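Exam review. A common question shows you a sequence with its structure tokens and asks you to describe the fold in words. Practice with the pair below. Do the first one on your own.
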Amino acid sequence: QVQLVESGGGLVQAGGSLRLSCAASGSSFSINAMGWYRQAPGKQRELVAIITSGGTSNYADSVKGRFTISRNNAENTVYLEMNSLKFEDTAVYYCQVRTGRYSVVYWGHGTQVTVSS
């Protein structure tokens, strides 16, 4: 069973920065894509950024140029560097990984990011 441990959330003023981390453990298979999603109150969960094992990344339009996703394959860890944070970035951020041949999906428990205006 894959376990995901997220850290780095918190309260920050608009214009500030935060860095989220997510460490995966317990996988018997290779970890393929790793990503971050977020869910604001009353809204659906949405993709923020995703990165493949080869390092190709994609971002939601709303965070392009402000957020950077990266990963350390040796440590099975994915990071999300968030700069120029806006009030509308406030949400619970969830780590997601896909493992093995069939890209089985695992989710973290989420970490709260609150941006004060």
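Now try the second one, then compare your answer with the model answer below.
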Amino acid sequence: QVQLVESGGGLVQAGGSLRLSCIISGSIFSVNTMGWYRQVPGKQRELVALTTSYGSTNYADSVKGRFTISRDNAKNTVYLQMNSLAPEDTAMYYCNARYTVMGAPLESWGQGTQVTVSS
């Protein structure tokens, strides 16, 4: 199993920056993909950014050029650097890990961290 703990959310003015962190513990060697998702009340959770074990990344069109996902394997941590934040980025942000255990695909979610961008 993989456990995830996010931090770094908060209140920021439009145009500001935040960096979210997600600390990974457990069966880290089995993790294939790490990602950040966000959700606002009444809407589906959406992908923000993800990174694979091969180092490739993928971003939602709405955050391209503003957000950067990265991982520090020595610290077992995945980051989401968010720049030029806008009010529409306000959401609960969740860290996600997809991994395999004895060949079975599994995924874990963190508890979420709130990001609020004021105009």
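Model answer, second protein: The chain has no helices and eleven strands. The CA atoms of residues 24 and 76 lie 5 Å apart. Full marks require stating both points clearly.
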